[in-house]
Amino acid sequence: MSNIHGVISPCITLFKENGSVDEAATADLWTYFFENGVDGLFVTGSYGLGPLMTNEERVGLFEVAAKVREKFPDRKLIAHVGAADTASAVLLAKSAEKLGFDAVAAVAPWYNKYSENLIFDYFKSIIKSVNIPTYAYNNPSTSGFMFTLNFVQRLQAVGLKGLKDASVNFKFLSAVYYDAKQNNKDFQVILGTENCWLTWSQMGADTIIGGMTNYVPDVDYKLKKIFECDNYDAKVDAYILMSNFRKQILYTDSTISSHVALKATGHYAGYTRAPMEIEYTEEHINNAKKLIAGIREDIDSLIDKYSLEITDPKALVSSH
Gene3D superfamilies, per this entry (predicted)? Predict the structure, then answer.
């Protein structure tokens, strides 16, 4: 079974003003994530703007992630290798494996419309190209392709080891999850958002891709610990706080909102790459500052209210 658990960051990539990848600033940011309790990185995914990069740039960021992980050997790395063409996806997967990544994941090929059989062949090529686990990434809003249980089962038969789901279609998600659980399959399902985190944890699942890690990794760490406890009332209260926070902080595209929220924390937030542009006002920054201060205070108050014992993630780092 997979050894990837906890909260994985769909880590943003920082660019320079001229549009080139800022590897040094990105490395500092990803180190900050690990220092604040993030369990792993999902590199060059949607938040990370992988589709806007060349293969060489993406491999360069795989190298950055591998270097950052050296000080945090217990953390996990997943490389998003999805591409518009099969050859690029395979090249990226092999590169990630060579660099010691724990797994690769891929969204269905985008732009052109393909038959289910051709998409199956694309995933099979990735699966067969590496000896580390391959996860399929179900993100129909960007790929135009929605997975089904039958399609997942076809891929499982050729070695697929997991699914990251961003559709939040719980009819599909629960079908895949319980099919694997009831049939003792070596297969993991990862929820691709904090949305529905409470439901997910109540089902017995323990791994999510959390976008809030891009600006409040400490909060997602504490939420993870709360959802692991036995106090259901604490879980409900925490989920309500988190849901209200997300509704307000995500005022536009999640990647842009993450950069603005990160800037509001005082951390260097860099630039994005054209055609994406970070547009914000001082009002956006000030609002994000208030929201972030509020969620941190509210979560800490909740922890005190229910007398929960949660270790500071920085103490865990220093113990290694």
Answer: Aldolase class I
Domain membership flag for residue 125: yes
Number of structural domains (the chain) is 1
Residue 1 lies in a domain: no
**Domain ranges, residue 310:** 6-318
This prediction has a pTM of 0.96
When pLDDT is averaged across residues 215-220 and rounded to a whole number, the result is 98
Residue with the larger pLDDT of the pair 140 and 57: 57
Distances (CA, A) of 34 to 29, 192, 274: 9, 19, 28
If we measure between CA atoms, which residue out of 106, 2, 5 comes closest to residue 50?
A: 106
pLDDT tens digits along 4-14: 999 999 999 99
57-111: pLDDT as tens digits: 999 999 999 999 999 999 999 999 999 999 999 999 999 999 999 999 999 999 8
Domain assignment of residue 172, yes or no: yes
In a domain, 215, yes or no: yes
Could you tell me which residues are beta bridge partners of residue 189? 163
Residue-level pLDDT at 24: 98
